[in-house]
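pinging the channel bc i need a second pair of eyes. not urgent but kinda urgent?? the chain im working w is below, pasted from the shared doc
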Amino acid sequence: MSDLFLPPSSPQPGPESVEETKVLAKSATVAGAAEPDAAAKAKKKRRWVLPLCISMGVLVISLLGVVAWAWYTANSALDQIKRDPTLVIEDPEFPAPLPSDLIERHPLNIVVMGSDSRGDIEDGRSDVLLVMHVTADRDKMYLISFPRDMYVPIPGHGKNKINAAYAFGGPPLTVKTLQQLVGVGMDHTVVIDFESFVQITKVIGGVTFNNSFESTNLGYHFPKGEVTLAGDELLAYVRQRRGLPGGDLGRTERHRAVLRAVFLKLATPETLTNPAAMQTVIDEVGGYFTVDARLTNSEIISIGTSMRLTKGADVIGLQAPVSGYGRTKANAAIDIVDEKQMAALAKAIQDDTLDAYIKKYGTASGLTKR
């Protein structure tokens, strides 16, 4: 069925190395100077609730966070989010999502799909695919990316690249494919206009993060090490695939790094206390999202205010495991799923033990060449 397998090198343990912004580091130093009193702790918590979801799926869930900052403004922004009844997935193999009064005591899994307003998504397929897993105690958030060339079973269509599910049956079939792959029902679905979302970085002065591989794309050069990018330059960075180690895997690593960097930048005092910047983010960002009809404003607010994230390290990116590369009989390049490790990842999602999974396997596949 496939050939040209390339064995991976040993996976690197520990969380992905994505540097936080200098501004956030500065605020962390101040926070560590002395033990804050109860009021200060509450204020610190609210600072993280505010931007909580202004980063991919996180953004949707924490546009809510903006509620803590300006309730009426947040509700106005949340009203701009499109609700799609077809994104409510009915799958007899998996139970319906728990109601909001119970979900706070259970892990939360949200599918995040990135579309592209350019209108030229390859073969009508989604370009970004992640599962956002929030722990039951709400103090950790994991962004699990699934490379679009992963060769997996698609319900009713045999095996194919995972992003083909979008072409065959849109977001509903994509969600069913993920549920079958990890053995867990998804609580909510979010589809994002990724290009417009990235453009919001121009409003907040760009994002700073660590670029692990030097490259050039669309006329922009990206040196290895710390970079600060925004707008079209950032889009060129996240869209690049050719010339990166692992191709598709290298691009999904960039997606995770950028999403985390956006979240961290939005969590800094300099952004939160800039009325003009925050108003623009609030006014524009709601229109970038389409969510399932169950994800109402009140549900978003309930989830957002339950979060307990306190530092950048609480947002962790990792990649679904790939053991090598191959080609189909039609000569299409594919990523081969590491079945044993995928089973371990699925169990970690089911049991809410991703911290132990990462300690054993690390956050990346270990593949460096294609």
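so The chain has one domain: 22-87+99-196+250-361. and The radius of gyration is 20 Å. — does that match what u expected or am i reading it wrong
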